[in-house]
Amino acid sequence: MMVILKTKNELQLMQKAGAITAAALHAGGAAVKPGVTTKEIDKIIHDYIVSHGAVPSFLGYGGFPASACISVNDEVIHGIPGNRVLQEGDIVSIDVGAKINGYHGDSAYTFPCGKIDAETQKLLDGTKKSLENAIAQAVVGNRLGDISYAVQSTVEPMGLSVVREYVGHGVGRDLHEAPEVPNYGTAGRGIRLAAGMVLAIEPMINAGGWPIKVLGDGWTVKTRDGKMSAHFEHTVAITQNGPVILTELK
Predict the structure, then answer these.
(1) Based on the structure, what is the number of domains in the chain?
(2) What is the pLDDT of residue 121?
(3) What three-state secondary structure class fits 92?
(4) Residue 76 in contact with residue 229, Cβ under 8 Å?
(5) Sign of CA dihedral 62, 64, 70, 74
(6) Which stretches of the chain score pLDDT less than 70?
(7) Quick check: is 211 in a domain?
């Protein structure tokens, strides 16, 4: 496993990719309302990325047919946008990547559609908090397991579960680079974190059990028990001055 450390110049280029990714994600999120289709949201995201001189990272990646992964309710990740009409009470996980100047940004957020119930709000709050806690561990000298454990130890006491089969990853010139960043693990284990690492940290958390299934389209991942799932992600640079979120909305 070779982890590619980024220079200061490369991190500046990645900030541009991250900024476009963040803004495109939140433009899509602003469109999450009852009556809107997931395909309409994908078009908003695609048009934003392209109009800012970037390329949608996901479009055509491994054959994926859209610019954003849009996963609703019990869909965990990799939902394909289409004619599904959003309903009041849905939750909509939108995952976006944008590439510019040779570098990618990658970010996800789970948006409520109208009013959601208290149990679903707890899932969103817990998943978001687990990402914040994980990012706080992304400091020079810590171990990769410190990030993983931060996610797991945040959500499991809340009765939520961590998806096992899919993980975060390094990001840079390639959308997926080493190392893998699991959302479960043991503090103090794994590779040591160094300045110049850039990680896509992305908790995928279920309201019920952690087992998942992949649908016949070969992409869409759902919870096996049909319970809700949430997904939050940031691209984070590890620097001597602490973690820098490259996909934070400015």
Answers:
(1) 1
(2) 98
(3) strand
(4) yes
(5) negative
(6) none
(7) yes
